Amino acid sequence: MERYEQAWLNYRKSDFPEDGTYFSEIHIPEESPCIRSAAEELAAASEIMYGVKPACVCGTAGEGKGLDGKKGGICLRYDSSLAKEGYRIDSAEGIINISGADAGGILYGVFALLRELRAGKRPCGLSLRKEPANALRMLNHWDNMDGSIERGYSGKSFFFRNNEVLVDERTKQYARLAASVGINAVVINNVNVKDSATWLITDRYFDRLQEMSRIFSAWNIRLFLSVNFAAPIEVGGLSTCDPLEPAVEKFWQEQCARIYAALPEFGGFLVKADSEGRPGPFTYGRNHAEGANLLARALKPFGGTVIWRCFVYNCTQDWRDRKTDRARSAYDTYMPLDGQFDENVILQIKNGPMDFQVREPVSPLLGGLTKTRQMLEVQIAQEYTGQQIHVCYLIPMFLEVLNFHTGITLPGDREPEGSMPETGRGKPEGADSSGNTRASEEADGYGNTVNPGQADGLGAADIPVSDCVKDIIAGKALPCCAGGFAAVANTGDDANWTGHDLAAANFYGFGRLAFDTELTAEEIAKEWIRLTFGTDPETEAVLMKILMMSWPAYEHYNAPLGIGWMVNPNHHYGPNVDGYEYDRWGTYHRSDCKGLGVDRSDAGTGFAGCYHAANHALYNDPRTCPDELCLFFHHLPYVWKLKSGKTVIQHIYDTHFQGAEEAAEMERLFAGLKGKLPDAVYERCIARFHLQTESAREWRDRINTYYFRMSGIPDAQGREIF
Amino acid sequence: MERYEQAWLNYRKSDFPEDGTYFSEIHIPEESPCIRSAAEELAAASEIMYGVKPACVCGTAGEGKGLDGKKGGICLRYDSSLAKEGYRIDSAEGIINISGADAGGILYGVFALLRELRAGKRPCGLSLRKEPANALRMLNHWDNMDGSIERGYSGKSFFFRNNEVLVDERTKQYARLAASVGINAVVINNVNVKDSATWLITDRYFDRLQEMSRIFSAWNIRLFLSVNFAAPIEVGGLSTCDPLEPAVEKFWQEQCARIYAALPEFGGFLVKADSEGRPGPFTYGRNHAEGANLLARALKPFGGTVIWRCFVYNCTQDWRDRKTDRARSAYDTYMPLDGQFDENVILQIKNGPMDFQVREPVSPLLGGLTKTRQMLEVQIAQEYTGQQIHVCYLIPMFLEVLNFHTGITLPGDREPEGSMPETGRGKPEGADSSGNTRASEEADGYGNTVNPGQADGLGAADIPVSDCVKDIIAGKALPCCAGGFAAVANTGDDANWTGHDLAAANFYGFGRLAFDTELTAEEIAKEWIRLTFGTDPETEAVLMKILMMSWPAYEHYNAPLGIGWMVNPNHHYGPNVDGYEYDRWGTYHRSDCKGLGVDRSDAGTGFAGCYHAANHALYNDPRTCPDELCLFFHHLPYVWKLKSGKTVIQHIYDTHFQGAEEAAEMERLFAGLKGKLPDAVYERCIARFHLQTESAREWRDRINTYYFRMSGIPDAQGREIF
């Protein structure tokens, strides 16, 4: 077996060889690395699909120009009427035109064309126009420089080994895969930046990063780095990393100058500060706007962006303490700072207020903030959703988040910025006056939907076009610049990239969804199945069924009704009801012999009140709170009647028996594909399905047993509980 | 600070300088390493205690002979009327005579004399005679060759580092400490023998082991090694380690010949087989007698001993399975083999049927076996009793075990060998005919109380002198040879040897108790306190109070009523009620909303029936079962009335509030010693006392909260439960 496989780019001989006539010539508008990638992808695909090796003609890519009336040929060209990275495909008179706003758009157009052709569409009459929903479509890799991957379930890092940066053929293949689904930004190192990784921003690693950045650029990807907020101390030899200290400011400015001298295409920094032991502004009594703006000022001259993670909470909580609520923490930290961040700062907000559980409410920061660029962070690494052993197709979950109505109705019943307590420090004296002022041009490459003149708040005429998360992160809902969409990546150096072959659907799906948030989960799954495994209808039907049932099944056998966290500590795999119950992480279910759940209503921790009015009301009352979140927001008796008509305890039993059965059903379904899939793929997957079935059974029995022992209430159906 | 401290051998200037006159000359019977150690110890002590450096005169140690009528002088000499390693001290006409059965006896006599003098006794009229209760008094070190120590809480190994054997001044100081309390056998490597440690029995390590063995011998200690049962494969290059395979037999015979050629004083092997992933005879369908006898035959020509651990159980149990009982496992494995072990095999049996919990019943194998040499294994490393952070003086627990009445009343109501199912294989054809026959002379150096002619069973005249564990292991209760007393050691390369200074009381106490099982816990504690910290009465009173309250306190805040195992998995420190409840280790409490405990009565797993009649009856009925073990043997409702008059639930609450308060009280008591103890000692200890108080509070709150949530029954005293 080769060291890596082609995933969804494993081109096959086409059923329609006549389409190869279009591949007789490829016309490109100019020589550039990215256009070169696009043309080579077309040529390589053509050779496999049609047995045709097209000629490439440069500088002739006008409307049919250069084709001299011949039929057959593909024209790659620019079209300035398209939004950034947008593309258009049309065909006429035997010619396919792929027009892009820029080289990136052309590249995406090429991948789109191949997608269409491989799905069985005919070139004749093709007409397609797409502009990316999100300007910034990013993968966050949690790769460590020793080669390990934090929460990595697909082997070792292909970016680092033995504290060195790796650049090889796999680097290119990775960039190609990512580009094929529209990813345009990649953070290669773990947000927990320690030891050698702190030095990635120094010339110790510039040579290799330069090579990597060039490869990335050829696939329209910008390289980002996670940085250590304490770098001024650890790298700069300073005694402080106080963001208001001039020497610290100078350190970052000089460091950025050096970075951009070596890496002109560099994207910027991703920062996890004051979180889970990471250093940050709090050490110096500064707030996170002061911290983020420090880096933003240093990056600004070069067009760089600061992605600042909002993952801040007390990770040394006393389990006895029922007042502190981890769910509130990011909201309480960042809401008072809304409007204080520089224009090239984007806050990266996890989809839920906790940490990538199978079910959480949407973070109230999304749409709570109205004057700050917001980026949605999801995790395709499946840390809490089966770790790429269980199938868990996450796109349906991401779509629920994207389509969540935040309920922004400004101006009106709510003034988040005025009504919030001022817990952060005010604007410091002597700070750069640009710190809180929006420039009239774009701050970086990603704020392309900004309405720059109106950044200071919402006026009467500024009713948002939509209050959905997808429109907020895209920059459509609010006058501040766009944010973007990021996922914690699920790749490693396993030959198939993602450990479980079916986990590649999450990699594929995330990219596709970030580019086009109007796609459905089924559409994405269908695309991915066809590209990966071909167009056999039975294979497609079985895999589609498995993918679409996988997230609900996982939720069924997991912690019930939104409560989360019933996992084994540290590694987070497998059930452990009390695993975090008496621990310091702020993750409790508070079960006793009468009931379970956390009261986050107004009568409890008040977290429900972090939402805009309609959602606040919805979540605050257990009678209206959606069933799937009711234990997240309320402590309810086992005999509480859900809207489904079942009691909480019977719901627990029923869903857990159901979920385990669904896992077994998925294994049975997949087993039916033996002989239809490549043997290696089948064997890798069936082994994992078997583990999933066993694990789901363990989830079922542990959760059911725990609650039967605790409540003393038997299963109405008399099934076996231990 | 020096790299190691003197622990209880830190001699001080004596309050009675006149006693120094006895140290004017030391007369020794001959030059030998062990006699030399004894004389040098006397000389070194004298120099510090009395400022006198005595002369040493050799070959003159008759009764006063050589002293030429002078007063003052110590005579070391042999006395063949004493049992092996026994000693006698008397003084007359200004001369102190220390008589020993052998060099070891003389050495122990010397340490005894110094103990007496340092405790304030006057030489004049001293008269003391001691013979060791146990012939084999052993420490098991779980040191790995990489320098780590499994369940080590006092630093790194001083026997190994980087896969090399260490021999240096600390080796000697360790041997001296061990000898001073009567230890005469030491296993230096972990019973889990892997990697390099498998090669300790080869010439790769003989040079260093020779040096170490010589040092040990000079302190009357024999070196033992833990061996890997799979050594014939890993070292010998064979394809099997089947104990009935001639090539395997040959491997061990040749290996033993090599070992004894290099290490003539070598003691023998300690073996953990078929346990927790270790290889063993089961792989080949052989029983443990066949496995042990294989090694015994190889060691026999050299007088070596096999110590075979009885720690065998299913460590991949399904928590749903209520029939399998780990407590039964060792009993079920070894009882059918009683009488089948060679005479130089000793079975090493943990004090309880589980694994070193703070409270367990005594293993029913002790005294269940009647034709097999039995050695009691305890653990002073405090794996489950506070890990040398908590003070837990274990001597009172060991005394309870030693004085436990096993209830052997043979011949009479029970025939353990006949009534046991024959689960092991019978004697294999073609096996060495000596395999199951006792020789008429001693098999090794440790069976000194054997009654060799009567080894095949108990006749009518053989009513045991006592049915207590101490008499069984000493070889007094049964006609088979003596076993011995072993402890899993608690030392490491911390300067004070044991992490917590007070944990040294367990090291000291174990040795003293192994030599003299008639000592009380208070006597031992008093000795240790005076030797270590001097004779200040207040210091002594406070430390005595702390030591004597420490084990009960630990039991109070630990898992209640003998149920055990409510600890964090893997590292075993701190409370976690469900930590092992849904795991594979066979360690469950089966709590539900009505009650808790494991039914091990005849109606349950039947474990109670493993005991002789009286204990069987006692444990089998919850009304007679001692309170402290009632949840080990029975599943009882929270409202069950204990013999104390309290309900189970109120007992849980009361003991946990009490235990946490006792921990705090110990800290307060110890804090009062500031200024009375060396600063370094005080600081090391007080930091640990503080951690203990915090940890005990955590135990209190987690256990109480868990059972309040589970039972819904409030504390009768209305104290705070979370």
Q: Secondary-structure blueprint of this entry?
A:
Two copies of one chain form a homodimer.
Chain A (H helix, E strand, L loop, with lengths): L24 E4 L4 H18 L4 E4 L15 E5 L8 E6 L2 E6 L2 H16 L8 E4 L6 E4 L19 E2 L2 E2 L3 H12 L4 E3 L18 H12 L4 E6 L3 H4 L11 H17 L5 E4 L16 H12 L5 E5 L16 H9 L10 E6 L22 E7 L15 H8 L13 H4 L49 H5 L10 E5 L15 H12 L5 H13 L3 H21 L37 E2 L16 H8 L9 H4 L2 E2 L10 H24 L7 H33 L11
Parallel strand pairs in A: 1-2, 1-3, 3-5, 7-10, 7-16, 10-11, 11-12, 12-13, 13-14, 14-15, 15-16
Antiparallel strand pairs in A: 4-5, 4-6, 8-9, 17-18
Helix pairs in contact in A: 1-2, 6-7, 12-13, 13-14, 14-17, 17-18
Question: Would you kindly provide a written description of the structure presented here, covering whatever features stand out?
Answer:
Chain A is built from 18 helices and 18 strands. Chain A has 722 residues and is an alpha/beta fold. An eight-stranded parallel barrel of chain A has the order 7-10-11-12-13-14-15-16. In chain A, strands 2-1-3-5-4-6 form a six-stranded mixed β-sheet, covered by helices on one side. In chain A, strands 8-9 form a two-stranded antiparallel ribbon. In chain A, strand 10 (185-187), helix 4 and strand 11 (222-227) form a beta-alpha-beta unit. The first copy, chain A, is globular, with a radius of gyration of 26 Å. The two termini of chain A are 45 Å apart. Residues 411-441 and 449-464 of chain A have low confidence and may be disordered.
